[in-house]
Amino acid sequence: MRHAALVSAVVVTLVGLAIGVRNAEAAFPDRTIRIIVPFAPGGPIDAIARPLATTMQEILGATVVIENRSGAGGITGSESVASAAADGYTLLMTTGSHIGNKVFNSAQVRYDPLLGFTPVAGLIESNGIVLLARKEMPADSIATLNAYAKTQPNGLTYGHAGIGNISYIAGELLKVQAGMPLSGIPYRGTAAAMSDLVGGQVDLCFVGISGARSYVDNGQVKVIASTGAERAPVLPGVPTMREAGFPDFVVLGYIGLWAPRDTPKAVVTRLYDAVREALARPNIRQLLSTFGAATEATPPDEFARFLERDFATQQRWARELGVIPK
């Protein structure tokens, strides 16, 4: 009898827990959702993250806030999400550096970017980033830039947002593939690097089109080349690295949304649906089109497969750059 009573009590408890979990998922969201952006405020990702959060808030009927948590090239903020509760109320919005940090800076990364998170949606896939130079740079092409760099005793400097960030990877690929003498200068985010580029404290910087447009339009910097497979529609006069003679120099930027590992599927679906609807809104579509970015959300399963392919691509780059053995 005691055994039967104990079994019954356990069953009742488990059923109660299951019902509680289902009720919590059905009620989601019923409190504030925090989206962690692992870079300093004012960068290109902020220009997209904040309007998107506002629109998601309208769709979900719950407060959605952006929290910038910079440090270690994006590792600090990503790590905080990896260790957060798997309930959908703490999310990560970041770039391909989520993968790049693990590939290029593995000693500092204590989480698995593929297995330690639940992909929610691919938000943006751009058709490349752009190489910018300080306004006074006496060069306007890769060829003339390389020639000028080789006349300088210490070569040229380029600003980047941390080892593993796309701005770092592109800079190192330029150094290796073009044989250009370059030294990387790390910053806490692209916004800080751009500030020094405009001020002439650094020579070059690879930046997403979203972060470059205003500086280019205002004549504050020179744009040298883009890294897409084709020219960016919003910058049709800017040649690609392929056109400059580097057929394998194709580096595409993207932004995604992740939840902690084991976040319930129903919660992930609710979040994805909100993202998909937000990206379909005219104001968001217009915003993204000015940045030269795609405007359709990538579903969780498809985004997960994309991330696996990107991991393999970044490993190939790391081998080319000598970061990991060939």
TrEMBL record:
Gene3D superfamilies: Bordetella uptake gene, domain 1, Periplasmic binding protein-like II
Keyword Nucleotidyltransferase: no
SUPFAM superfamilies: Periplasmic binding protein-like II
Pfam families assigned: TctC (PF03401)
Coiled-coil intervals: none
InterPro entries xref list: BUG, Bug_dom1
Family: Belongs to the UPF0065 (bug) family.
Top-level taxonomic group: Bacteria
Xref: CDD domains: PBP2_Bug_TTT (cd07012)
Swiss-Prot/TrEMBL keywords: Receptor
Organism annotation: Bradyrhizobium ottawaense
Protein's name according to its UniProt entry: Tripartite-type tricarboxylate transporter, receptor component TctC
